[in-house]
Design goal:
The protein has one domain. It is an alpha+beta fold. It starts with a helix and ends in a 12-residue tail after the last helix. Helices cover 17% and strands 25% of the residues. The protein has a nine-stranded mixed β-barrel.
């Protein structure tokens, strides 16, 4: 009994002399990445392009006028296309996989034109996009950071996001000029900026509004919407665009010269 009384007096004395901030229960500060993540709309899941999805962003007539050099490249990419929605010329497509020169990643936003699923994973301060096509990965930073100076250019770019109500607004920049912006053959330069607006319009439907802005290539920004359907039972599988070509010298798209 006596020892219990001594311990009680000791504990009381310690708390008496501690500053008030030290004895208050821990509370997560308002507006932190954790609390913001808990309140954000849920975009997570595996999504696949809706049936009948096209290889571009809207109709070709919706594309902004191009600079002469870009118009020339686009016309070359369209040689042999069956119609305005058909794939561009494989031999000029940086992502067709028919040769070592055509094994570049799809890039942003071209990857949405490929009929493969992708997964969205939300975490505090980040949103991950895991694409099945060629193991592509994007990290969208939603923690309020600024775009770093002197970023190295990449295929998918550097993405910053913020929430506008139920919509995730993402701006991506710092992309190289080695990709097409869609499957039709529209080119771009390293001045490309892409703004995406992700919104879950229904429980099983995701809408991504894509705006393409490249003043070195197009007279004005242009773009369109892409619709994706939720696949709760699906998983993202391993895929390598040029795997068959590199291992056997036989392209899944047709004949090709074996790499040396």
């Amino acid at each position: 009994m006596g020892s219990n009384i001594v311990r009680s007096i000791f504990v009381l004395a310690v708390f008496t002399f501690l500053p008030a901030s030290a004895v208050q229960p821990f509370q997560q500060p308002e507006g932190t990445a954790s609390t913001r993540a808990a309140a954000m709309p849920d975009l997570s899941g595996v999504w696949t392009p809706a049936r009948g999805a096209r290889r571009g962003f809207g109709d070709t007539k919706d594309v902004a006028p191009m600079q002469p050099w870009a118009e020339e490249k686009f016309k070359a990419a369209r040689v042999g296309a069956a119609d305005e929605y058909d794939q561009g010329a494989d031999e000029l497509d940086p992502d067709s996989g028919i040769s070592p020169r055509n094994c570049y990643p799809a890039g942003t936003p071209r990857i949405y034109n490929i009929p493969r699923p992708f997964e969205i994973i939300q975490a505090p301060g980040k949103v991950y996009l895991l694409y099945e096509w060629d193991h592509a990965v994007r990290r969208i930073y939603t923690d309020g950071r600024k775009r770093p100076e002197g970023m190295l250019q990449s295929y998918m770019g550097y993405s910053l996001g913020k929430w506008d109500g139920d919509t995730l607004v993402v701006e991506t920049a710092d992309m190289n000029d080695k990709t097409w912006v869609d499957g039709l053959g529209h080119p771009h330069t390293d001045a490309l900026r892409v703004v995406e607006r992700f919104r879950r319009v229904k429980a099983d439907t995701l809408e991504i509004d894509v705006l393409i802005d490249d003043p070195k290539t197009y007279a004005k920004p242009w773009g369109g919407k892409k619709i994706f359907n939720l696949k709760p039972a699906w998983e993202i599988y391993e895929h390598e665009n040029c795997e068959e070509f590199w291992e056997t010298g036989e392209s899944p798209y047709g004949s090709a010269e074996k790499p040396k």
